[in-house]
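Form 7-S
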Amino acid sequence: MSGDEKLARSILKSNYSYLVDELDVQYYVNDLFQEDHLHDIDKTTLSSPTAQRRQLAQTFVDMMLRKPDATIEKFFDLVKTKNRQPQIHKKLFPHSAAEVQTTPKTLRRGRKRQSKQAAASSISEENTPTKKSRSCAGPGQGESDESDSSDSDSDTDDSTSDVDGSLNPLQVYPLPHHERAGKVLIINNIHFANCPKRKGASRDGKKTEKVFRSLKFDVDVQTDLNASDMKKAFKTEKADWEKYDEKQYGCFVAVIMTHGNKRGDILGCDGQPVKLSKILKKFSSSRCAGLKGKPKVFLIQACRGDDEQKDGLGQDANIDDLEVADIVKSIPNAADFFVGYATGLGFVAYRHPSTGSRYVKELFNVLSKSKGKTEICEMHTHINARVGTLNRFEKQAPQFVSSLTKKLYLTKAYPN
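Output:
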């Protein structure tokens, strides 16, 4: 890696937080795509109509850090030449930004290398990484703390540095490299006493079990549980985690597929409600010491009791009327949770009676193709984008809320 290439990656890394806060990726995606620096799936993910600007910015910066150095340099070239966001140009390249306004074009070309070197020196003095809290928009490894260091090579803290693009294990939840990565509990309620059968749900269950077994998770599948049995299943799971050796499993995943109601409850096969918030609270660090510091993932495909039909598709209702973040916010010691929802607040999700639900289908596709090597928040953003473009007339927008404090990969080995 040449000096200029290393410099570009260092500038990107040391300004991670600032770019997440300020960057509007729509100014750059098309240009990068047209010059083959982004793939089709990259463009689709970064063009998601349901994602927030900050979430897309964070996904974009993480993506750039995994791309070749030529892609990062092209992005910086767009920042400087297009000048669509002058504040970013000024922050990243203060000297060259001043030249844009005061120096003829011919002189600017001659000073390009000098400006870049001066800018890097200035940036390394102003920015070093520090921890930043995660939002529900996605993964957050923010930096940006004041420093008096003038050494341009010391632009990141050793504990979080990955200037060469590789992941530092301190930033990743450590899943076991031997035996099993984690434990998965799948609850798939299909037949109900007072609600319609969830046609297509059997296919969802088989896909979910298959993909998690392929990722080396131990899988427990339970079908058609009434409300009391659902509560018992989670109570048993919690008790099991208290007994496990600390290094036996690194992650807990619960996939819940059932009907739901407008109050935010999930339903047992007897039609009785179970509060999702109470299930989540059972696994907080204060109530389940065996999962303290370990990621807890809940993926929810829930449906409305009346299960109205539309063009042969079963309509699943949104699982709650509350802000999705409120459930996690209500949990004491609620760090290390990730909750994925099949649909957004106030909207329906679709399930085909033969092929199953859109959400579970895309969850299976993304996990299968990535083999668990896509960070979970970015993975769910891919799901958001794919589900959102499946049908032009019947829209669905999955959502997620995260209190994870590190990156999470659903594989027993760190990605290469």
